[in-house]
């Protein structure tokens, strides 16, 4: 899952730049290490939704103080992977069907706006590379990690064409949560079955995004993401 972890880690995110000197740099480094470790375990489905996570146990296992462990867990909670239950503690988030639908709406808003910025000439200039990436997605097995790696690489390549660092950063955040959903096999929910026959049309999407009309390009991306609900 090399590509996946390259995409989801916080390289360049503003949270990583919160500290600047001395002890704060060390603190950030420790909390980032805890964050990366916990994130990887969550995405590898080592914990089930609802499993409790104790910050003191995490700190002891990773040989850090409680402070960086707590900071890492708060960041994961802010991103929607953990949740705090009053008088009980922190647990792996329990995801609902509504959460899954909400994730589609987030991606539609973010990637739809990106499409408005890169449609037309940028797509045409990068057509060969994008078609290669799209074909790789379309030929991979749906709901496999291989498919997810190719899916993320394709969509991130599109977002990067918008030449907007904020959009790329927010895309990474959204995809971290999307991967969490995938890791917990929520794609097996019955309401997704109706989309089986229309997913994986990335090659077709590249062609549609070559138009110079921003409204048309945004609609193409929104429709693509909605039809690909199974592949959040």
UniProtKB/TrEMBL annotation:
Parts of the chain that traverse the membrane: none
InterPro entries tied to this protein: GntR_C, TF_FadR/GntR_C, Tscrpt_reg_HTH_GntR, WH-like_DNA-bd_sf, WH_DNA-bd_sf
Annotated HTH gntR-type domain residues: 28-95
MF terms (GO), sorted A to Z: DNA binding; DNA-binding transcription factor activity
Keyword Glycosyltransferase belongs to the record: no
Keywords, in A-Z order: DNA-binding, Transcription, Transcription regulation
Pfam families: FCD (PF07729), GntR (PF00392)
Keyword DNA-binding: yes
Name of the protein this chain belongs to: DNA-binding GntR family transcriptional regulator
Lineage: Bacteria, Bacillati, Bacillota, Hydrogenispora
